[in-house]
Amino acid sequence: MDVSPPLGLLAELTHRCPLHCPYCSNPLELASRESELSTADWFSVLSQARELGVLQVHLSGGEPLARPDLPQLVAHASGLGCYVNLVTSGLGLTRPRLEDLVERGLAHVQLSAQGATRERADLLAGARAFDHKLAAAALVKESGLPLTLNVVLHRRNHDQLAEIIALAERMGADRLELANTQYYGWALRNRDALMPTRAQLAAAEPIVRAAIARLRGKMEIVYVVADYYEPYPKPCMHGWGARQLTVAPDGTVLPCPAASAISTLRLSSVREASLSDIWYRSESFTAYRGEDWMREPCRTCDRRGRDFGGCRCQAFLLTGDAAATDPVCSRSPHRDVVDLILTAPGTPDLVMRR
Ligand code: SF4
Ligand code: FES
Fold this sequence. Notes:
Elements: E1 8-12, H1 39-52, E2 56-60, H2 70-79, E3 83-88, H3 95-103, E4 108-113, H4 118-125, H5 130-143, E5 147-153, H6 161-171, E6 175-180, H7 185-189, H8 191-194, H9 198-214, E7 220-224, E8 244-247, E9 252-254, E10 268-269, H10 275-281, H11 283-286, H12 304-307, H13 312-319, H14 335-342
Parallel strand pairs: 1-2, 1-8, 2-3, 3-4, 4-5, 5-6, 6-7
Antiparallel strand pairs: 8-9, 9-10
The structure holds iron/sulfur cluster and FE2/S2 (inorganic) cluster.
């Protein structure tokens, strides 16, 4: 099959993070500081990514501001001609640091928020974070960079949806991503506590629809649905190994950010192979690319070109088989697994990210 080059690189510079969000999708086992790629390693990864065709670089984590070499990495990526996005909690973003990053070519900031009020947001972040986020948003707007606010939605903050939209407006966000929690990594431990109710999702829909209409041309709103409640799965990653690659802090290259959850998948590292080899030829990137790997019911399904059989990580986590149809799909023989999860009472306490 013809394989297109990747468009985006998610560079997870570190797993270190000042927050303790219970919906964290990073793996249970985080990469240690000692195992992190060096500055020179990241220069090489960024250069190789650009050579491969990557145009968008998302510097993420954990908290990328925890890396003292962040300014050099921004300069290197922007010097290669890449559009550089900083994905941050905002903690540690001071005026001098932001001015320096802008000077070096930073093009966009994506800021996370956990709730609409200080009390709720700090509770869900497990840290005093809310005021830092307001300050960070103000700095980004002052710098003239475009700002995206990303809020992960779940049972413990769905009731604040209208206020969250108002918060994004107050911050002057150009884009608001309202993403219902995806259950990978740490978030999976908290699934029953985080799963929104059907009533919460029904209440959210008109609020989001009205906001999209009211704010058209001023603030773009993206709403990522709660897929467990849907009849068909999400087109995860727009297909496996199709558009984007992720490099984890220790150099492991992932076809999707959650792919380390698939314990049957042999992952490659930038320490042992080139990005090009990994993208085009590695076992992990070719495993579920295209349609050859599909079994029934996906193999002959009229929707397979639209959703690519759903999410491989979810298929593995819920059935133990990464080549299974995503069990969210109403045509999957395993849909009962998802239906059973939706009947869970949803009362357990949240386990904060450690
Ligand atoms: Fe998508 Fe497979 Fe379900 Fe068809 S059977 S809708 S391709 S997940
Ligand atoms: Fe890994 Fe969907 S999260 S394929």
